[in-house]
Amino acid sequence: MTYSIAQAAERSGLSIDTLRYYERIGLVDPPARDSGGRRTYSDDDLSWLVFLTRLRTTGMPIRMMREYAQLRHRGAATAGRRKQMLFEHRASVRERIAELQSCLDVLEYKIAHYEQIEHTFVEGITA
Amino acid sequence: MTYSIAQAAERSGLSIDTLRYYERIGLVDPPARDSGGRRTYSDDDLSWLVFLTRLRTTGMPIRMMREYAQLRHRGAATAGRRKQMLFEHRASVRERIAELQSCLDVLEYKIAHYEQIEHTFVEGITA
DNA sequence: GGTTGACCTGGAGTGCACTCCAGCTCCTAC
DNA sequence: GTAGGAGCTGGAGTGCACTCCAGGTCAACC
Asked: Is the CB of A16 under 7 A from strand C?
């Protein structure tokens, strides 16, 4: 199964421009081309793109994703290094979640405060 | 209690440049000045700064923080609108956490995969 | 054979949130 | 009285990750 760039964009959630951009900066290998010179993405290409979007979503900088891509390119010998990268990234994602969670607590507190103000206000009116 | 810009930076976790930048774009009110024309931040200034950093950390764009700051400036009458903003922001933070969590699951899976490869490799050697 | 629509290229432009800089003023300590 | 350090201003520069554009090609349909 192969996909046009438009289909690849739709399935990966990236824009067409971003797909070409990722190729340009060496984050994805240039996909095959059809007889007319158009990109045709394979299922493998697609799953790599999907994985990349996960890394992006979790805030991995492009620079690091490129490093990962280069290691991947060098084959099984770099598996340890790649695992290490994912390991460290996992830690940073966990930290990020914890950080968001703690800010969320502050937000809850603040919202509760507004609710209290509202409550007081209503009491003031009905009193 | 008042604080120099350096102290305010340290306590808020923002840089000195960022403090001046926030003031310039109207995110924080210009603090008082001492006899020499230097900024002196009050405890209130500080707690606003700290709250702002929470909003930033949770990904609220500056544009929206500025809107919030302007509402705040208009006093109690805008409390409802502000609460609404925090409400919506809270929802987006929760979504973000869920998104990170689901990407984390993918990451776990991938790491487990690498571990399996390693395991196979070691078996191959010792066999 | 002409029009349409998807795709191509290289390169320029955008938005965001800072960050840095030159050249200045002030206060303090020696 | 002068050297040093913190702070001041307006404005320019940076890094990131796209996003857009002009001008062109190609295949298909009418």
From this structure: yes
Q: Are residues A51 and A86 in the same domain?
A: no
What distance in Å separates residue B120's CA from the closest CA in chain A?
12
Distance A61 CA to D16 C1' (A): 9
Q: Are residues B64 and B120 in the same domain?
A: no
Look up the domain containing B99 and give its range. Answer: 76-127
- The answer to whether A33 CB sits below 7 Å from nucleic acid chain D is no
Rounded CA-CA distance B85/B78 in Å is: 11
In the block, tokens 């922001």 appear at B89
| pTM of the predicted structure, to 2 decimals | 0.89
Intervals of chain A under pLDDT 70: 121-127
**B61/B81 same-domain check:** no
Contact yes or no for A93 and B103 at CB 8 A: yes
pLDDT above 70 coverage of chain A, percent: 94
Neighboring chain B residues of A100 at a CB cutoff of 8 Å: 57-58, 93, 96-97, 100
How many structural domains are present in chain A? 2
pLDDT per residue over A8-39, tens digit each?
999 999 999 999 999 999 999 999 999 999 99
Read off φ and ψ for residue A123, nearest 5 degrees.
-55, -40
DSSP E strand stretches across chain B? 2-3, 32-33, 39-42
Could you tell me which of A28, A53, A57 has the C-alpha nearest to residue A41? A28
Q: How far is A54 from chain B (nearest CA, A)?
A: 6
